[in-house]
Design brief:
This protein is an alpha+beta fold. Helices cover 55% and strands 19% of the residues. Strands 1-2-3-4 form a 4-stranded mixed beta sheet, with helices on both faces. β2 and β3 form a beta hairpin.
């Protein structure tokens, strides 16, 4: 009988180097980040669930391929229906500005989390 755990591992998608670098940088700032989360419609590169932020770390085709642009717009719609907003960051920006981006995104996620979980009695 085959090991079902092995099948799950084989299906797991590894993040790109840039997505992995951003994940590590965010986690170092105390942000909980999920990688390659399947939201029922697609895989999301990085998800910050408490702030309801999805982060897509994109290659150049996301800016130069019309079919990819249309697909990305559709993907964003499904995330938004689930209460998440999607941020797209080009690989090049991660390579050049990882520290600034991770600092800003960590702070934005904390601000967003506070806004989402404020309860008025």
């Amino acid at each position: 009988m085959p090991d079902s755990t092995l099948n799950i591992v084989k299906k797991f998608r590894n993040p790109t180097k840039e997505a992995g670098d951003l994940k590590t940088a965010l986690e170092e700032k105390g942000v909980r980040v999920l990688v390659e989360l399947h939201d029922g419609h697609k895989h999301v590169d990085l998800a910050i669930p408490r702030a309801k932020i999805n982060v897509e770390v994109d290659g150049i085709q996301h800016l130069t391929n019309p079919a990819q642009i249309v697909a990305d717009l559709s993907r964003g719609y499904y995330s938004h229906k689930n209460g998440y907003d999607t941020m797209h960051i080009p690989n090049e920006m991660i390579r050049l500005h990882l520290g600034d981006i991770s600092n800003a995104l960590a702070e934005a996620s904390k601000i967003r989390e506070r806004k989402l979980y404020v309860h008025v009695d």
